[in-house]
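Structure first, sequence second, as always.
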């Protein structure tokens, strides 16, 4: 059977990847191969492991423009198709039986209907690990994989078949970064987004600011570095004004259904979360991705992890397995299910408060041998229990048994 995995890659990553590799992306197969070797997200991760279950994987991309253009050129297709049309054509061309879509916002229920009406695909599944979707967005799917137990329960309670599948580590990464130096930098490493909003990264912002305040050595890589503080301040003020105007118009009986027909209102549906502390703009370094990120992370003594507020009491993000997988000690916020993945204090280190995170960070920086021993134990645990090889039975079972 053939499974298509459709991904909408993080825009900053794919734009940077296409710009940096433009001269190498000469045809469809070569472009796909180079992307898969860069170790970002699920790219190139499932194929070899699902083949054991007689599942052939085809990877399709919403926003890998160069790849899609090569496909159109090589198949002498009409060149002015939109991305939905291209994906439908690809599903037919590759004779796909099953689909997993990883972004239900970009490819919503209407696209799922098109798949069911215009292709021979038997079932369409989704992978959902964030709350940014509506019931309508997922209404046409036949089942959902999720990295959160809470989501799995909610989906099932609402009549949607669901399977819990935690994130994991791409074991090929260490082969791709094996020529990097082995001496670890005695500092805290953090790479990731910092967005305002109670269910996003407010706690992450406070933690990073405390590290800076205490003058603890920290390497901070984030898209924050791409933005200007004053422009961000003005833009946020404008969004607050638009949101306030929207609420005033609501009071005089002009509802959101009408207002959202105008792009200026459609993009502001919640009160903007505010602007980040100016110190973060000053300290952030340009974001890095793929093998560049893992090469740098491998050389760091300690990698800091902070879950977004939406995770509640569950450990759920990819950094859990990425940092440990490359051999950096993981210092992460405590979650109730962490012990199901790692031995706490012997394979990873946890904290329950900003004060405890600071205290443990200082101790580990002052005792690098302790940190190295824990990091090595964490890496071994990932290699044993938390790779795509380990998760493949979960994904395959959902398809083979149709989530039953």
């Amino acid at each position: 059977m053939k499974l298509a995995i459709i991904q909408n890659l993080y825009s900053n990553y794919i734009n940077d990847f296409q710009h940096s590799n433009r001269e190498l992306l000469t045809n469809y197969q070569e472009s796909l191969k180079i992307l898969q070797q860069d170790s970002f997200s699920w790219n190139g991760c499932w194929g070899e492991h699902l083949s054991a279950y007689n599942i052939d994987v085809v990877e399709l991309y919403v926003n890998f423009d160069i790849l899609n253009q090569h496909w159109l050129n090589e198949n002498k297709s009409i060149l002015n198709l939109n991305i939905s049309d291209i994906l439908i054509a690809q599903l037919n061309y590759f004779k796909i039986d099953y689909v997993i879509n990883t972004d239900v916002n970009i490819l919503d229920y209407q696209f799922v209907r098109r798949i069911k009406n215009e292709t021979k695909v038997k079932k369409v599944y989704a992978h959902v690990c964030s709350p940014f979707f509506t019931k309508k967005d997922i209404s046409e799917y036949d089942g959902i994989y999720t990295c959160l137990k809470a989501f799995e329960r909610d989906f099932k309670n609402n009549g949607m078949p669901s399977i819990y599948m935690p994130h994991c580590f791409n074991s090929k990464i260490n082969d791709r970064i094996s020529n990097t130096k082995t001496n670890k930098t005695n500092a805290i490493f953090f790479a990731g987004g910092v967005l305002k909003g109670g269910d996003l990264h407010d706690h992450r912002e406070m933690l990073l600011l405390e590290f800076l305040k205490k003058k603890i050595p920290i390497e901070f890589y984030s898209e924050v570095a791409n933005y200007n503080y004053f422009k961000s301040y003005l833009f946020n003020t404008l969004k607050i004004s638009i949101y306030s105007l929207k609420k005033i118009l609501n009071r005089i009986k002009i509802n959101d259904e009408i207002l959202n027909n105008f792009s200026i209102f459609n993009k502001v549906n919640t009160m903007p979360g505010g602007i980040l502390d100016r110190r973060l703009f000053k300290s952030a370094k340009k974001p890095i991705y793929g093998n560049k990120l893992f090469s740098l992370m491998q050389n760091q003594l300690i990698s800091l992890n902070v879950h977004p507020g939406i995770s509640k009491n569950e450990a759920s993000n990819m950094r859990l397995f990425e940092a440990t997988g490359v051999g950096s000690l993981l210092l992460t916020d405590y979650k109730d299910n962490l012990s199901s993945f790692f031995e706490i204090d012997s394979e990873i280190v946890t904290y329950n408060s900003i004060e405890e995170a600071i205290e443990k960070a200082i101790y580990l920086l002052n005792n690098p041998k302790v940190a190295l021993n824990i990091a090595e134990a964490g890496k071994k645990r990932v290699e044993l229990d938390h790779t795509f090889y380990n998760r493949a039975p979960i994904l395959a079972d959902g398809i083979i048994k149709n989530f039953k």
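Margin note: The chain has a mean pLDDT of 89.
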